[in-house]
């Protein structure tokens, strides 16, 4: 529990930018918190690391730094995204609400990475599930990276058209699907390492929480795209034939699921 407290403190510091603009709690604070937590685990358990826990930790650091840096650059260079972000934050949020968001986000981030923390803390040897989970996580990171690159390239060609090429032919939110794969891999990597019931609970809460957030994000994106492209017949055909988040899973819309608001 002491290590979890240290990880929470690291995340609190790295996500504190949300007090400047509250969406930073769940954007910049998210990426940099994941990277900071993974880096902290490398330092805390430097004498008991295994080859595959090193690989997973480094993968999470690269993921978090890449995501945080990508969001910073997007806000600086992309005028339309900056306008959208400013519109989302026009409504004032008082200090106590910000504190609640801050603490809730930090709890989620720590729980997400907790399978790796428990594996290291319990000195569980490398095994098949760790290897498989790490490979799944890395595939998710790469999928998210390629999805962002493809979207940027498509928007550069035509900023006013929805993206339906490359990975977006398979699923409408491939970057979110990459996120799902990443945290599925992290969760799988820790399955054989939990010593007590509450470790299972925290790990499961972290995994369930990020899956909920991804579906919530897909819903927000769907509503925004419906507003921008809803009258386009090509877009209507696209959304009726392309799953929104999970490839091959015939879920084409989540906009009516109001319980996904987050």
Structure description:
With 262 residues, the protein is mostly helical. 69% of the residues lie in helices and 0% in strands. It has helices spanning 2-14, 28-44, 51-77, 79-88, 95-121, 128-157, 174-189, 197-229, 233-241.
What's this, in brief?
The protein is 69% helix and 0% strand.
Shape: globular
* Fraction of residues in helix: 55-70%
Order of helices and strands: HHHHHHHHH
Structural class of the secondary structure composition? mainly alpha
Low-confidence stretches: none
Q: Enumerate how many helices there are, as a single number.
A: 9
Can you give keywords for this protein?
mainly alpha
Write the layout of secondary structure elements.
Elements: H1 2-14, H2 28-44, H3 51-77, H4 79-88, H5 95-121, H6 128-157, H7 174-189, H8 197-229, H9 233-241
